[in-house]
UniProtKB/TrEMBL annotation:
Name used for this protein in its record: M20/M25/M40 family metallo-hydrolase
Pfam families (alphabetical): Peptidase_M20 (PF01546)
């Protein structure tokens, strides 16, 4: 079968205009700007003839207990409702902040004004690659241009095509969510709405997300179609040291050293790198490390903490935490070995064992130790710690730290020790199943051939989207055991962090990612390649929705 007869997208100007319109509405994650963005999306949808005639098909789904009153937008375009089969088009409309734009912060959401400023600047704001792209006139610069307003623009444009196509039998459910760049609370709201639609009789054969293509290496101009998404965990390690006077550093164990040694064990560690289908997850990296000493004095820091970003392709949360525990044990051994070595250097063998080697506890192990030590009254003490930590602190990091600190006060006699926890959020890794999703995998092969034969684009099929994606919450992959691990390590789980596991298991929707191409997401030089993103990618997206309506 030939795939060489496809032409570039007839409405590329519309995709570009929509992209600019969406970019020009600031929507920084975690702000009320996301509300204005939802308004704009609904306004654009109402320009679609279908939604103009069926305004009630556009729904705003409020995020639960959200102080900003944000909402997800779910819009159902029904061209053949009798089939009760629909394809989901998923996007997020929030963006990261713009402080990195520096002098051009005011123009970050104004692509034309930003282009003019960048053309005139002479101070090296752009690197050589970005300057070449600016001069090519094939790139649109601005926050959100790549991640991911262009993907949403593509989806809105082909929805208009479908609405105007009298022969179309495509039922499309647009899901546009806020908060993807933070905690995916928008997706949680959308998932529960999709579950309600499913209960009413709708079936979702597949979801197409339009996150942007990410280059796999410098000067990589391949375009990618992803059939899964990377998972993520945030192991949180609290370090309780044994304080001492700075004039006698060998009489204690500095909590800062405990954190630093653990960072050495975990940073870039191959032990955490997942490999699957020829792909590898990035090694873990530290997102925060600090001690908790608030004032200057000559006592060594007694408390510190760090938390790590760990990305997964196949490792379960349980396995990841086993690896973290092993890293803590290795750090403990390294610290103690050095301590003994330095103390022996002073010729005092008897003092070598004066300070114990740091222990390693999970929060569940410390809890059980508390029950054994204090009896059942400790259960109430722990619940009070949870309640007060959540009430008195704003962020998940602050709450998790508060729980660790207050819990540890019951076990000062055990110091020094590492305490292992998990901090929200949690993203499951997901991928297509080679047996159950054969038709969808075959569709990605067709899309690859269209790109190659009709547009001479090198399109590569890849299993895992390298950034995080909300598609993680559309498919169930053994969540029963996952929930047990989250219950064990994440004290905030089911307290003030709720993943709609039941709805996810009910939906179990396979996903692929067909999106635009750009460079430097989350950087001041974020930019969208226009030739592919407005002329080729929409063709692939429309082909996919047609095939899903006809075959799956």
């Amino acid at each position: 079968m030939s795939y060489s007869h496809y032409n570039t997208y007839a409405y590329s100007d519309r995709v570009l205009a929509l992209t600019k319109e969406l970019v020009q509405q600031p929507s920084i994650s975690g702000t009320t700007q996301e509300n204005q963005m939802a308004d704009l999306i609904c306004t654009i949808l109402m320009r679609n003839p279908y939604f103009n005639a069926h305004p009630s098909s556009i729904k705003r789904i409020p995020l639960k207990q959200d102080p900003l009153n944000r909402c997800a937008v779910v819009a159902m375009l029904e061209k053949k409702p009798s089939t009760k089969q629909a394809t989901i088009l998923l996007s997020h409309y929030d963006v990261v902040g713009v402080d990195d734009f520096g002098l051009y912060k005011e123009e970050a959401f104004q692509p034309e004004a930003l282009k003019k400023q960048l053309e005139e600047e002479q101070e090296g704001y752009l690197d050589e690659s970005a300057r070449a792209d600016l001069d090519s006139n094939d790139y649109l610069f601005g926050r959100g241009s790549m991640d991911m307003k262009a993907g949403l623009a593509m989806q809105l444009s082909i929805m208009e095509d479908i609405a105007r196509d009298e022969e179309s039998t495509e039922n499309i459910c647009l899901v546009a969510v806020p908060d993807e760049e933070k905690l995916s609370l928008g997706m949680f709201a959308a998932v529960e709405e999709l579950a309600k639609l499913q209960e009413s009789g709708w079936q979702f054969s597949a979801c197409i997300c339009s996150e942007p293509n990410f280059s796999a290496y410098p000067n990589d101009f391949n375009k990618y179609i992803y059939t899964g998404s990377t998972g993520k965990l945030l192991p949180f390690i609290y370090c309780l040291g044994r304080e001492t006077h700075v004039g006698q550093p060998l009489e204690g164990i500095n909590a800062s050293v405990m954190a630093a040694q653990l960072a050495v064990e975990m940073e870039w560690s191959d032990a955490f790198s997942d490999q699957l289908n020829g792909e590898s997850s990035p090694s873990p990296t530290c997102l925060r490390i600090r001690d908790l000493k608030e004032t200057y004095d000559v006592q060594t820091p007694n408390e510190s903490y760090l938390f790590y970003n760990v990305l997964t392709l196949h490792s379960s949360p349980e396995l990841v935490m086993e690896k973290v525990k092993r890293a803590c044990q290795q750090a403990s051994e390294a610290i103690y070995e050095r301590l003994v070595k330095h103390r022996l250097a002073f010729g005092t063998d008897a003092l070598a064992a004066a300070v114990p080697q740091p222990k390693v506890y999970t929060i569940a192990e410390l809890y059980q130790r508390g029950i054994k030590k204090f009896g059942t009254s400790f259960k109430q003490s722990y619940e009070t710690i949870l309640h007060d930590s959540i009430r008195d602190n704003e962020t998940f990091t602050e709450q998790t730290l508060s729980i660790a600190r207050h819990l540890s006060t019951y076990f000062l006699d055990q110091a020094p020790f590492y305490l292992l926890l998990l901090q929200p959020p949690y993203y499951p890794h997901v991928k297509l199943n080679e047996k159950e999703d054969q038709a969808l995998l075959a569709l990605t092969n067709d899309l690859q051939k269209i790109g190659t034969e009709s547009f001479q684009e090198s399109i590569v099929l890849k299993t895992f989207f390298p950034g995080l994606s909300d598609v993680s919450y559309l498919r169930s992959q053994g969540e029963t055991k996952v929930e047990t691990t989250l219950d064990t390590f994440m004290p905030l789980y089911q307290q003030n962090y709720h993943i709609p596991m039941e709805a996810i298991q009910q939906l179990n929707i396979p996903t692929i990612n067909v999106g635009p191409f750009g460079k430097d997401a989350h950087k001041r030089t974020e930019r969208l390649q226009l030739s592919y993103s407005t002329k080729v990618a929409p063709v692939l997206l429309r082909y996919a929705t047609q095939q899903l309506a006809n075959k799956l």
